[in-house]
């Protein structure tokens, strides 16, 4: 035993396992992240191919798909040639070109994980997973359940294993099939290692066995690991540890083996001869096929990147050199960095050319927990990694939330069930008919505007730092407010030329029948609508004392400039404005006109979005299009209320003049930043720091969910069954399905994010090198980086630790006088097969 | 007006044909066809309903085409319309219409859009046939259609493991029910000596005569139908298939397992009610079953932590109550209860994904940590035991494995010692010998002849059992199943006054399907594909059209109503004497296991994860 123990280090194995398991939290919040975050310390390609070998993930398209993309012109010849030359040099150019275009490869599917446990079937003729998993998942789901079951798991406050022990102690019936294992459950001296001794019998195989076992249901194991490390991710908190999960599963395995084979079965390593342990994480040599795939994937990405840079180059020549003597702008709008706001910003500027739009992460630099009146919990409203010290409270509830009787649990009870059945039954036929023909908002639909009442009174200002609740300071002091306002405004370069009205536009998303609704909300607000943040920021920026303090720091906001918070519903394309009742009359009149501008822009935005929805005729009357778009967001039958971050590919950090004349088809995150106000790049670090984890995280989650929707995505939404309010599964006996559902990733071209920063390359290099965790994203190639030197209009691509100049190959960029015309004529995908789907993504256009 | 009844079958049939021949990308056409089909029928039902009311609630009866006729039997498709039909068809058509409107958007761009609507159309046809059936034969046709559609819709996501596994699980329940229904028809034949029309029963009841008086039929006949209803309506001890059937798109689960398919057991009880309306002992049994099911299902629903499963068990509980209502003679209440339960569960299932955001929001504002006060007393322990048992679904699922699958496999494995050579050297001569004696019945002593049918049937059963556990070569399993069919027809042929025409009718479909099916499997082998039965291969990924051909052959071989084999099957059974218990049981078992073995071959070869490494592969646990 002595030397065996040293072979297997339980603590380390569990720690590693938690690292590799999916880290998605329960679905009430949706935080996008790199699906393969566990491999992020490696270079992109070696990392994904290694993950593929270990876990059987699909990580790129297959060669046939790339070749089809090439055939339809989605990968241009000159780009392919460029990539081959770069990767392979000119000597072997022809050989590799031939490999890419013609050579036949035989793919293989042979993941390392799962091989050891396959021996149960091979040598014991037992389908252990079929015997164990259904009941095991049921126990686990019942234990973690947040409120579906009417009858809670007994003793669920004690931890999984203890609760099961208590249940077994106090019941005549048992979860176990054999008495022996029931006794083993009570034996607290048994450890995972001892149980493994019984099941596997040889410590050299323990780690491999545990990985096999837990990765046969990575969804459930992942949620347990994620709740273990982040207990606040569920409202009704449960103690649970991966260790207990494994302990219970091993017991159930022994139980079923005993029941099927009697008690004298041999441990696996003893029975199966010639078994050799496999090092799951051993390096994977790169195959020729993989090299071909790397070339193709690079070419697929560069095909787009090149187009974008060519567009930027051309657009720059159309911009006036210096903006001089412009009249005061009518208004400014600060939007979320989110790529879905790209089109709205473009339309706002189109409807009212004399305005300015800016972008920044949608929590607007104010981080806090929000406590709605009567709420029993707090909601975090800032990026996931941040832990706020502040609390914003609603004073009193203004409205009462209605109930949805069809979700009432009465219909599942015995006597009340009959009554509710007979009374609700025929009504539900009417209700269904109405929902089909005239869908409208109802309490069961998640409503972005309901996140905060439009007239809610918030406590934002703190006058006494000792005012605390559960360790959180209630509100912000004047200085704390000033710091945040200054930080944000300087970051986005809005330090002068303030318009009379500055709109702070947050976003959220309404959708019906959508367990993944959180994935459509604002990522910078932990997957929630950012309405509170917008209001809080506007309050801060309007505060006279804050203005005074800012003026003292050299940031002078004119007295007649007012900030107004707003919320844009990205699914319904509706907007609400907050605290706009008290504007002084002149401004109020301006505001009413501005609202009209936003209204028109929303019409156009709805039209632009509608081109991807087959059920809407884009060419019909624009108000009808708008109504159809709104209706989608409240339709139970609509699995695509919006397409979320699908197609995201770019992130611009720079002045709006870079992108103002570009039609980017809602594919670009846009963070405002003015190199002129920050010549040494002092502010740049703060601006660029959240980009890779937030935008890169979104991008990579879409990449992997698109490429392997079965293993890394959640599969199609249509059969999903909500489990315990924490996740979705297929069927009643299935594993949880983390990742994004098919309906969200269909139009997405899986390309890595290209971050384009408008500054001198040396400044950008210094900035990214100043933080190791930030640098890793770029260095290892999980996110691409280009510096646009504003002084000579050259492009510099970051690679191998330095910037090298890149000249776009693409000479011609299509031009469009009328974006509406482009939208109306855009092709629609025939199927969601990549070659068809990618046709929907329009090339970069210059807007005349 | 009676002529008009065939409209309700012809419209869905036409709809199905249009849908099946549409281009698979023509989403609009396909969806509109389905909506129009249900809509036209709905209008028809309303019209007919008005006439029916104005006509003083007089039932309509339509004698349909006679598919087979001989001196002693006829096989006809008769149609019938009464109050029960009116309510069921109205609810069924309305829900189907709503569901099609819903699905038009919901299924949009799904790979199997056309497949989905074809199945909905096929389902709708099946349910109309059942509901309008005027005799048991017609009802059986609809029954089979519903069964196979269930299989297709559960395995809709055929590239994943669980849907395919659960489809096979559910279809095995259904197969048992089908064979029981067939037995019910057989027993009725022997009792009534003619094909049964529901109008006759209706009339008899109106005249106050008791239909069944003789022992053992007085219990046997209703019991068989009760068995069928219990399976189809997921009553105890068969409830566990229902939540597992919810593998397809939510909209198909709603229409099938929330509302229509699952209430068919209630319909069957109402239809056969005249057979037991004065049989109080039997009524007590139905009531007991209803009480037991609704109690157990309510407890099970209480502990379910997944939303669709919870709705499923709640629905089962209500259906249990409907059984009680029917037994108590409260038909109208049962009809109302059916309608409301069907609508409610359809709606609840359709909006079930929204439960997450709704209940989380509710929890956010109203959460009260639950109290944990479990007394360590006898009652406390009893409560805890109920909790544990409910989590385990009262062992219904594991019980099915323990008491159904495992023994089948055990017998199969025992029987497979025969081996291929054994089969060739024992069974082929045995068959030839049997064949000789069938045509020369006089050459054998009376005593020997009386045992031969049983011997042949047992031989057939052994063969399908071996086919059922076959692991290495699908062609072998296929051949064994075909041989079973031959043995069955031979067994029945020993019965005197036998019409060989009927055997030929039975064999006509089998021969073609046997040959074509074999060729398909052989083609796959030639293409270098594996056709062992040890795992799922998912060949429909690359050979989609071939899989359609093969499933048609499977259906033909299994006696699905697309070939004359189906009529033959029914006729063959009618030639088994009522005292030939062994023959009846072995033949019935042979049909059950044969069907399962056929679906198993199709499932393993064409469905499930396709692991070739050039595309994504689903997890086994999904």
Helix content of chain B: over 70%
Number of domains of chain B: 2
| Biggest beta-sheet profile of chain B | 2 strands, antiparallel
Instruction: Count every helix of chain A, treating DSSP H or I runs of 4 or more residues as helices.
Output: 30
The quaternary state of the protein chains shown equals heterodimer
Q: What is the helix tally of chain B?
A: 24
Give the beta-strand count of chain B: 4
Stretches of chain A where pLDDT is under 50 for at least 5 consecutive residues are 1-5
The parts of chain B where pLDDT drops under 50 for at least 5 residues are none
Derived structural class of chain A: alpha/beta
Q: What class, by secondary structure content of chain B?
A: mainly alpha
* Share of residues in strands of chain A: 5-15%
Strand content of chain B: under 5%
N- to C-terminal distance of chain A? 77 Å
Q: Shape of chain A, please?
A: globular
**Count of structural domains of chain A:** 3
The count of strands of chain A amounts to 22
Describe the strand arrangement of the main beta sheet of chain B, using strand numbers: 1-4
End-to-end separation of chain B: 51 Å
Biggest β-sheet description of chain A:
6 strands, mixed
Walkthrough of the structure:
The complex is a heterodimer of chains A (848) and B (622). Chain A is α/β, with parallel strands linked by helices. Chain A has three domains: 2-30 and 113-271, no CATH class; 39-112 and 286-315 and 647-848, no CATH class; 337-341 and 352-401 and 429-490 and 509-639, no CATH class. Chain A is built from 30 helices and 22 strands. In chain A, the strands form five sheets. In chain A, strands 3, 4, 5, 6, 7 and 8 form a six-stranded mixed sheet that branches. In chain A, strand 18 and strand 19 (794-799) form a beta hairpin. In chain A, helix 11 packs parallel to helix 14. The termini of chain A are far apart. Chain B is mainly alpha-helical and 622 residues long. Chain B folds into two domains: 2-354, no CATH class; 399-606, no CATH class. Chain B has helices at residues 7-21, 27-54, 83-106, 113-132, 136-154, 161-192, 198-206, 217-232, 241-244, 250-259, 264-271, 280-303, 307-327, 331-350, 355-366, 378-391, 396-415, 419-439, 446-469, 474-493, 500-526, 544-557, 565-574, 581-606, and strands at 60-62, 66-69, 74-76, 79-81. A two-stranded antiparallel ribbon of chain B has the order 1-4. Chain B has a two-stranded antiparallel ribbon with strand order 2-3. In chain B, a hairpin with a 4-residue loop joins strand 2 (66-69) and strand 3 (74-76).
């Amino acid at each position: 035993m002595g030397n065996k123990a040293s072979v297997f280090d339980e603590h380390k194995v569990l720690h590693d396992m938690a690292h590799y398991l999916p880290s998605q939290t329960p679905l009430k919040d949706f935080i996008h992240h790199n699906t393969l975050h566990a491999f992020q310390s490696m270079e992109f390609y070696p990392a994904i191919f290694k993950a593929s070998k270990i876990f059987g993930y699909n990580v790129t398209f297959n060669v046939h798909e790339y070749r089809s993309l090439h055939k339809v012109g989605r990968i241009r010849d000159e780009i392919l040639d460029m990539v081959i030359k770069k990767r392979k040099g000119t000597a072997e150019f022809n050989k590799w070109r031939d490999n890419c275009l013609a050579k036949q490869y035989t793919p293989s599917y042979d993941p390392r994980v799962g091989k050891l446990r396959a021996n149960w079937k091979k040598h014991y003729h037992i389908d252990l997973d079929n015997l164990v998993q259904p009941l095991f998942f049921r126990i686990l789901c019942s234990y973690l359940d947040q409120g579906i079951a009417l009858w809670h798991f007994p003793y669920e406050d004690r931890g999984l294993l203890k609760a099961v022990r208590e249940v077994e102690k106090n019941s005549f019936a048992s979860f176990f099939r054999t008495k022996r294992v029931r006794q083993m459950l009570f034996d607290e001296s048994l450890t995972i290692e001892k149980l493994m001794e019984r099941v596997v019998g040889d410590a050299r195989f323990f780690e491999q066995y545990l990985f096999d076992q837990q990765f046969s249901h990575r969804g459930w194991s992942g949620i347990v690991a994620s709740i273990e490390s982040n207990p606040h991710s569920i409202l009704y908190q449960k103690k649970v540890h991966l260790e207990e999960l494994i302990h219970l599963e091993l017991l159930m395995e022994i139980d079923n083996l005993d029941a099927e084979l009697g008690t004298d079965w041999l441990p696996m390593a003893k029975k199966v001869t010639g078994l050799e342990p496999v090092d799951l994480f051993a390096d994977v040599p790169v195959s020729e096929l993989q090299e071909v795939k790397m070339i193709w994937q690079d070419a697929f990405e560069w095909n787009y990147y090149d187009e974008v840079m060519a567009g930027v180059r051309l657009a720059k020549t159309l911009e006036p050199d210096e903006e001089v003597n412009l009249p005061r702008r009518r208004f400014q709008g600060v939007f979320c960095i989110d790529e879905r706001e790209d089109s709205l910003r473009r339309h706002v500027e189109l409807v009212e050319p004399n305005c300015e739009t800016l972008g920044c992460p949608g929590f607007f630099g104010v981080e806090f927990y929000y406590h709605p009146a009567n709420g029993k919990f707090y909601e975090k409203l800032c990026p996931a990694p941040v832990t706020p010290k502040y609390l914003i409270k609603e004073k009193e509830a203004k409205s009462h939330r209605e109930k949805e009787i069809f979700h009432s649990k009465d219909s599942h009870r015995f006597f009340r069930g009959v009554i509710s059945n007979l009374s609700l039954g025929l009504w539900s036929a009417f209700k269904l008919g109405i929902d089909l023909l005239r869908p409208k908002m109802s309490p069961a639909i998640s409503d972005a505007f309901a996140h905060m009442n439009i007239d809610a009174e918030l406590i934002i200002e703190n006058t006494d730092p000792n005012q605390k609740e559960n360790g959180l300071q209630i509100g912000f002091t004047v200085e704390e407010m000033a710091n945040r306002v200054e930080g944000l405004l300087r970051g986005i370069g809005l330090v002068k030329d303030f318009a009379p009205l500055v709109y702070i536009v947050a976003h959220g998303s309404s959708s019906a029948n959508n367990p993944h609704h959180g994935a459509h909300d604002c990522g910078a607000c932990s997957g929630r609508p950012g309405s509170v943040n917008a209001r809080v920021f506007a309050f801060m920026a309007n505060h006279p004392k804050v203005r005074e303090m800012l003026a003292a720091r050299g940031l002078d906001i004119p007295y007649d400039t007012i900030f107004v918070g707003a919320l844009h519903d990205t699914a319904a394309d509706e907007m609400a404005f907050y605290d706009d009742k008290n504007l002084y009359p002149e401004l109020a009149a301006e505001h009413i006109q501005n609202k009209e501008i936003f209204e028109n822009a929303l019409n156009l935005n709805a039209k632009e979005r509608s081109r991807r929805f087959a059920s809407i005729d884009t060419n019909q009357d624009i108000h009808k299009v708008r109504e159809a778009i709104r209706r989608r967001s409240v339709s139970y039958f609509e699995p695509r209320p919006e397409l979320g971050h699908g197609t995201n590919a770019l992130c611009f950090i720079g002045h709006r003049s870079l992108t103002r004349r570009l039609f980017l088809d809602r594919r670009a995150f846009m963070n405002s930043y003015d190199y002129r106000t920050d010549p040494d790049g002092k502010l740049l670090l703060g601006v660029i720091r959240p980009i890779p984890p937030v935008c890169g995280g979104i991008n990579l989650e879409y990449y992997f969910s698109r490429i392997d929707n079965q293993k890394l995505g959640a599969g199609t939404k249509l059969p999903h069954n909500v489990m315990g309010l924490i996740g979705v599964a297929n069927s009643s006996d299935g594993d949880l399905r983390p990742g994004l559902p098919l309906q969200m990733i269909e139009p997405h071209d899986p390309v890595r994010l290209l971050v384009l920063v408008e500054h001198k390359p040396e400044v950008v290099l210094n900035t990214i090198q100043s933080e190791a965790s930030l640098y890793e994203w770029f260095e290892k190639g999980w996110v691409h980086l280009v510096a646009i030197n504003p002084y000579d209009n050259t492009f510099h691509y970051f690679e191998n630790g330095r910037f090298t100049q890149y000249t776009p190959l693409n000479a011609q960029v299509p031009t469009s006088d009328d974006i509406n015309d482009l939208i109306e004529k855009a092709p629609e995908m025939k199927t969601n097969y990549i070659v068809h789907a990618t046709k929907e993504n329009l090339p970069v256009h210059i807007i005349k | 007006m009676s002529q008009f009844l065939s409209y309700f079958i012809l419209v869905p049939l036409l709809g199905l044909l249009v849908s099946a021949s549409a281009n698979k990308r023509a989403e609009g056409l396909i969806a509109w066809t389905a909506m129009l089909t249900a809509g036209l029928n709905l209008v028809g039902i309303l019209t007919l309903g008005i006439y029916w009311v104005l006509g003083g609630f007089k039932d309509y009866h339509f004698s349909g085409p006679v598919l087979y006729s001989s001196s002693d039997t006829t096989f006809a498709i008769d149609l019938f319309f009464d109050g029960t039909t009116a309510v069921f068809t109205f609810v069924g058509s309305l829900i189907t219409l709503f569901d099609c409107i819903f699905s038009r958007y919901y299924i949009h761009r799904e790979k199997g859009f056309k497949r989905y609507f074809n199945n909905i159309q096929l389902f709708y046809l099946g349910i109309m046939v059942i509901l309008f059936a005027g005799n048991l034969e017609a009802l059986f046709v609809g029954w089979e259609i519903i069964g196979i559609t269930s299989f297709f819709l559960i395995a809709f996501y055929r590239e994943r493991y669980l849907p395919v596994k659960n489809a096979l699980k559910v279809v095995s329940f259904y197969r048992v029910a089908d064979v029981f229904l067939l037995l019910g028809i057989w027993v009725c034949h022997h009792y009534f000596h003619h094909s049964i029309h529901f109008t006759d029963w209706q009339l008899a009841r109106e005249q106050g005569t008791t239909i069944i008086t003789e022992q053992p039929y007085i219990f046997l006949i209703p019991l068989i139908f009760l068995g069928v209803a219990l399976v189809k309506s997921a009553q105890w001890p068969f409830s566990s298939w229902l939540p597992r059937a919810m593998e397809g798109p939510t909209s198909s689960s709603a229409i099938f397992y929330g509302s229509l398919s699952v209430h068919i057991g209630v319909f069957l009880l109402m239809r056969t009610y005249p057979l037991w309306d004065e049989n109080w002992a039997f009524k007590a049994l139905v009531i007991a079953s209803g009480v037991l099911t609704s109690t157990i299902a309510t407890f099970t629903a209480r502990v379910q932590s997944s939303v669709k499963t919870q709705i499923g068990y709640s629905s089962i509980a209500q259906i249990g109550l409907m059984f009680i209502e029917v037994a108590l003679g409260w038909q109208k209440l049962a009809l109302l209860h059916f309608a409301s339960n069907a609508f409610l569960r359809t709606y609840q299932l359709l909006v079930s994904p929204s439960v997450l955001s709704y209940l989380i929001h509710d929890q956010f504002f109203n959460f009260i940590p639950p109290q944990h006060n479990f007394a360590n007393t006898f009652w406390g322990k009893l409560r805890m035991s109920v909790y544990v048992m409910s989590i385990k679904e009262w062992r219904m699922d594991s019980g099915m494995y323990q008491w159904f699958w495992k023994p089948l496999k055990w017998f199969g494995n025992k029987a497979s010692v025969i081996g291929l050579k054994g089969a060739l050297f024992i069974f082929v001569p045995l068959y030839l010998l049997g064949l000789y004696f069938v045509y020369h019945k006089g050459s054998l002593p009376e005593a020997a002849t009386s045992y031969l049918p049983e011997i042949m049937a047992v031989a057939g059963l052994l063969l399908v059992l071996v086919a059922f556990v076959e692991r290495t070569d699908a062609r072998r399993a296929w051949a064994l199943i075909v041989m079973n069919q031959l043995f069955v027809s031979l067994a029945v042929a020993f019965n005197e006054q036998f019409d060989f025409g009927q055997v030929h009718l039975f064999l006509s479909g089998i021969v073609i399907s046997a040959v074509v099916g074999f060729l398909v499997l052989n083609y796959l082998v030639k293409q270098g594909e594996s056709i062992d039965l040890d795992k799922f291969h998912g060949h429909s990924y690359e050979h989609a059209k071939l899989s359609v051909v093969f499933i048609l052959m499977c259906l033909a071989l299994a006696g699905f109503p697309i070939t004359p084999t189906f009529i033959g099957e029914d006729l063959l059974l009618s030639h088994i004497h009522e005292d030939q218990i062994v023959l009846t049981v072995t033949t019935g078992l042979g049909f059950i296991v044969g069907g399962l073995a056929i679906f198993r071959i199709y499932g393993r070869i064409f469905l499930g994860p396709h692991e070739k490494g050039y595309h994504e592969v689903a997890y086994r646990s999904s």
